[in-house]
Amino acid sequence: MEALFVAIAMILSWVLILMTVWSLLSAARDAIRQARRMYAIPCPRCRFFSNNTHLKCCVHPHIAMTEAATDCRDFEPLTKPMRLS
């Protein structure tokens, strides 16, 4: 009878360990997926993006920094400022 309890305890402990690992892997996968979606938003790399809390974009302020801005037709990449030296 005692061996049965030990076997059930071992099975339950392994199930708990596997569920924890599965949960951690699932959370990591979701975080990576969300990071890829956020990186696809081109706003921080656009010349019209101001990073101002009141007006983030002067062209499309209603969609700035949202997933709707992923295919922004007015996106213009930042250019490096000229150095005067």
Overall description:
This protein has one helix spanning 2-39. The chain is mainly alpha-helical. The longest helix is centred in the first third of the chain and has 38 residues, at 2-39. The model has no long low-confidence stretch (mean pLDDT 89).
Kindly report the oligomeric state of this protein. Answer: single chain
Backbone structural class: mainly alpha
Largest sheet: none
Low-pLDDT runs of 5+ residues are none
Terminus-to-terminus distance: 86 Å
Instruction: Tell me the number of strands.
Output: 0
Write the H/E string, N to C: H
Average of pLDDT = 89
- Envelope shape: rod-shaped
Domain module tally = 2
- How many alpha or pi helices? 1
The level of helicity is 40-55%
What is the CA-atom radius of gyration, in angstroms? 25 Å
* Fraction in beta strands: under 5%
How are the SSEs ordered, and which strands pair?
Blueprint: H1 2-39
Question: Keywords, please?
Answer:
85 residues; mainly alpha; membrane; transmembrane
Give a short summary of the structure:
Keywords: Membrane, Transmembrane, Transmembrane helix. With 85 residues, the protein is mainly alpha-helical. It contains one helix and no strands.
